[in-house]
Specification:
Length: about 425
Amino acid sequence: MTLKQLASTRKITSFHPPQRTLMGPGPTEIHPRVLTTMSQPAIGYLDPVFVEMMEELKALLRYVYQTDNALTFPVSGPGSVGMEYCFVNLVTPGMKVIVCRNGVFGGRMLENVERCGGVPVIVDDDWGKPVDPQKVEDAFKANPDAKLLAFVHAETSTGAQSDAKTLTAIARKHGAMVIVDAVTSLGGTPVRVDEWGIDAIYSASQKCLSCTPGLSPVSFSQRAVDFVKARTEKVHSWFMDMTLLASYWGNTNRTYHHTAPTNSLFALHEALLLIQEEGLDKSWARHQRHHLALKAGLEAMGLKFFVEEKYQLPQMNAVLCPTGVDEELVRKSLLNEFGIEIGAGLGPLKGKIWRFGLMGYSCRPDNVMLCLSALGSVLMDLGLAIKVGEAEAAAHQAYATLHAADAQHARKKVAVA
């Protein structure tokens, strides 16, 4: 090390990130229990205690995915690695794959098909629209030799949710397997792998599961497993080869594959346990409840949603930036003045929308009210005709209406019992 290098390192001190309220497209805030679990002592990735925890982790993932698939586990890597894991195992050179593209991440699916040597048949929908089932049906009729359908359940770039149950049923009718991107939907809106007949699905730890980034829960049906085992050529990735990973994540005779991120897996175990304790149905309902309150407040400010109401994702709210407002300035003001992070638009939506995330531990009433208050303040400073307290009052009214509806539903259940 040179004297200059030594001098520069002496200026470095411990890193302490500022406290942020994370209301963007991810990552989310992490529950204190998960943070505490991450700080526990490291142990070996083949330690019998760790192996026992792995089995519990797989069971918890099966619950969240609503599946009995034996091959359900977290890949070491972000959601993009989970995506590549599914494609590199299931797409063989020359295979025809119908790929649905209605945002950024459908486009990434397409690139994976191409890199695996597949022959893509692209089904395009406008950004902000869900995947059109009729277009998928038409694509299968025009391409009866298509072996695979790939689509994004919850498009993070637009806040639009597609009908995974219907799309999967179309694929199965035509004898094709299905890959589903559930990065933003898992834990926030219903995902039912077995009921819908999904063959391969992937998600990410840092969205509605509210864990640290760097893990991608995946699940393969037995049909998908059998397909990979019957391949005549090796999977074009050593690290993501299903058969090799299964030797580590299987039930018996585990063999070394890679050094698993033990403490991150501790954290995911705790994050999934929190969802189990809350109840999956209640987690879905919580995301919907706070979405409706945030929506009421934003609309009271005169803001409009980018996605049609019936296709809106509760956990990813895409809102049009008002004409004449510098959307980047608004985001910077929220971050610098209030410590709130929201997301910008991607691709053709850059500069046109804001993305408000309500995911996992970030999906709380205090975050909803703080966001509305701060956003109203920033927009008022920019000259928009916004009255103090109107957005917050609208959100409170939405909460009151939802509470009354819940109480009435509870009374009916008691009466029936």
